[in-house]
Each structure stands twice: as structure tokens, then as C-alpha cells.
Amino acid sequence: MTLQQLLGIELPIVQAPMAGVQGNALAVAVSNAGGLGSLPCAMLSPDAMRKELAAISAKTSKPFNVNFFCHTPPTPSAEREAAWRAALAPYYQEYEIDAANIPAGPGRAPFSSDAADVLEEFKPAVVSFHFGLPSAELLARVRAWGSKIFSSATTVEEARWLAARGVDAIIAQGVEAGGHRGIFLSNDLTTQVGTIALLPQIVRAVKLPVIAAGGIADARGVAAAMALGAAGVQIGTAYLLCPETDTSAVHRAALKSESARHTALTNLFTGRPARGIVNRIMKELGPISTVVPAFPLATAAIAPLRAKAESRGCGDFTSLWSGQNASGCREIPAAQLTRELAQ
Ligand SMILES: Cc1cc2nc3c(=O)[nH]c(=O)nc-3n(C[C@H](O)[C@H](O)[C@H](O)COP(=O)(O)O)c2cc1C
């Protein structure tokens, strides 16, 4: 079954939810263009979420997707927090930041019953999850009001696990993808493979629509994914320069530069592996570090460095999320990009 048949949309294009760089404007533009727009909620409070969802509902009557992380919040460890701040100490000194005044805290919240309460008011066509699935109880609530449920798989094993729990479609996230790896059954990054290897294996392993994600940047990439059995594609990086995003100035500049060709998986910014353009902190402390607190607790200590550097036009401490193929990033309206990707 194609994505169009499953959802009643016109184009097999899902705009990837991208927490921190977009709100309702991008989702509305893509849904109105005939694709599936997405609202990422990992960094939104329930009130902020309600505002964004109300804006989408006011501006489109087309199907859209609402996306959540569903990690288990870790128990904070004072020891790991101290080790992480010690690693960052030279940078605090360089930027004259008083580390004693930096509050610790999560920065990203998993799907919860509070979020479900807000979501129930809107009953979106699709709810998608990253890092597995929420509790059976929460999942049953979402299913009961009729939303289709999608989640990311980074291995065949994860795809089978999701299929066994009744998801409606699986997002096959190849290792090229920008942002967080959806990996959830293992911590072993050697299990992560590219889209062209992962997609046909997942298509063979499950009897569900499979959405290809990672490294797809133009219409030929979309056609290639469809030729390998995809029901649709989920594209993130290519949308990052569209005027409907909130991509920061330093992030935009990096995406437009030669440095976008060099990305890596790093856990420095949040505690979980995510793909971003290699910058100073990734070179000096990582890209993968063992002193980083568990996801999402790494965020707090790095935040003031990021803010101060960015205010000077410097992306040395910014998570410059990008996939391995930034060649599709263009400063054109998201509706136009969506139509061109589907051509
Ligand atoms: C800036 C950025 C932020 C992202 N944030 C999320 C997110 O909040 N939730 C999610 O499920 N995936 C997120 N992703 C991953 C995408 O869903 C998708 O897997 C990826 O963008 C596909 O690869 P591509 O970037 O090469 O198109 C993000 C990706 C990027 C580039």
C-alpha cells in the first residue's frame, strides 16, 4: 500500500519532523502542497504544543503528522554531570561563563499522558515516534482516537519489533539521516546501515508500508527509494533552508558551505547519537564521548556555550544537524520543494 492510499494524501512525501528548527509553518506548507507535514513535539511544553496544533488546524484541513520522542527519562547522575562539566570547563573559561549558574535538566521530554491529553483535542491523521514506542497504555489511547501510528526502525530487528506492536507504517532510517538515530533495541552503532541496504531488507521482513529516510535529497532519490519498495519517503535535511523553518543563521551558513559534506554521528549535544556537521566541539571532544550524561541530560551544560558562541556568529557549540546529503538544501518555499521532490 502506498502512503497516498494509507492517508489520503496526494504525494508520497513526508516532511521529517525536526525538533528545534521548525514549528507549524513548515508542516502547513507541506500538507497544503499534498505531502504529509509534521510537527515535532520533543521540545514543546503541552501549552506550546496546543498553540502549534491550533495553528496547523486553522491553516490546513489536510492530514498532518505529530511527532514525539519516547525515551525513558534517565536517573540524573551527579557524577556524570560533573565529569561532563569538567570536560567543558576550558570552554566556559574561554567564553567567561560561570558554570555554577547553569541549571541541570532534560531539555527534551518523552510522550506522556499530558501530551496525549492535548493531542486528543486534535486527533491528527498520523502520530509518529522516535526511539521505539511509548507504553502500551499510551499507544492504545492514540490508536483509540484513530491516528495512524508510525515509528522509526534503524535495523531489521527494530522493524520486526515495531510490526509486532501494531504500527501502521515503519520509517526505515538509514545511517545517512540527519538528526537523532532512532536506534532503540541496542546501543551498538555498528548495527547502523545505509538506506539502500536497510530499506529492501525491511520491506522484505514486514508486511507494512515502509517509508525510506536518510540521504534522500531530490526526485531521483525519491524514485530510487520507491524502486526499492518504499511506500513513501521521509525527508528532513533538504527542507532546512526553506523560509518556513526556524533554522538558525549559523546552521544555515554551515549547510550552505563546503563543511556540510563532512558530518558525523555525535552524542555530545544530547547524550544520544545524532548526525550533524562536524564542528569544533565534535573534533575536540568527540564525536562520540563516554563522559556525556545520558540522553537528554547532556543538553543543559552545553546550552550557554551554544548561546554565547551563536551570538558571535559562531557554530562551534551548536548541534548542526544534517544528513550526509545536504545537496538538496535550497532556499525555496517548502511547497515548491515538496512538489519537485515528487516529480
Ligand atoms: C534538524 C533535524 C532535526 C530532526 N529532529 C527529529 C525529531 O524531532 N523527530 C524525529 O523523529 N526525527 C528527527 N530527525 C530525523 C528525521 O526524522 C529523518 O530521519 C531524517 O531527517 C532523514 O534523513 P535526511 O535528513 O537525510 O533527509 C531530525 C533530522 C534533522 C535533520
Spatially, the strands of the biggest sheet line up as 1-9-8-6-5-4-3-2
Summed over residues and divided by their number, the pLDDT gives a mean of 97
**Largest sheet, strands/sense/barrel:** 8 strands, parallel
Bound molecules: flavin mononucleotide
The tally of beta strands, per DSSP, is 11
Could you say which overall geometry the principal axes of the C-alpha atoms support? globular
Q: What distance lies between the first and last C-alpha atoms, to the nearest angstrom?
A: 20 Å
The secondary-structure class comes to alpha/beta
Based on the structure, what is the oligomeric state of the protein chains? single chain
- Element-by-element helix/strand order: HEHEHEHHEHEHEEHEHEHEEHHH
The radius of gyration is: 19 Å
**Low-pLDDT sequence parts:** none
> How many DSSP helices?
13
Strand content: 5-15%
Helix content: 25-40%
Q: What does this protein structure show overall?
A:
This protein is an alpha/beta fold and 343 residues long. Helix content is 37%, strand content 14%. The chain contains 13 helices and 11 strands. The strands form 2 sheets. Strands 1-9-8-6-5-4-3-2 form an 8-stranded parallel beta sheet. Strand 10 (263-266) and strand 11 (274-277) form a beta hairpin. The longest helix is centred in the N-terminal third of the chain and has 17 residues, at 78-94. The protein starts with a helix and ends with a helix. The relative contact order is 0.17. The structure holds flavin mononucleotide. The site of flavin mononucleotide (FMN) has 27 residues, from strand 7 and strand 9.
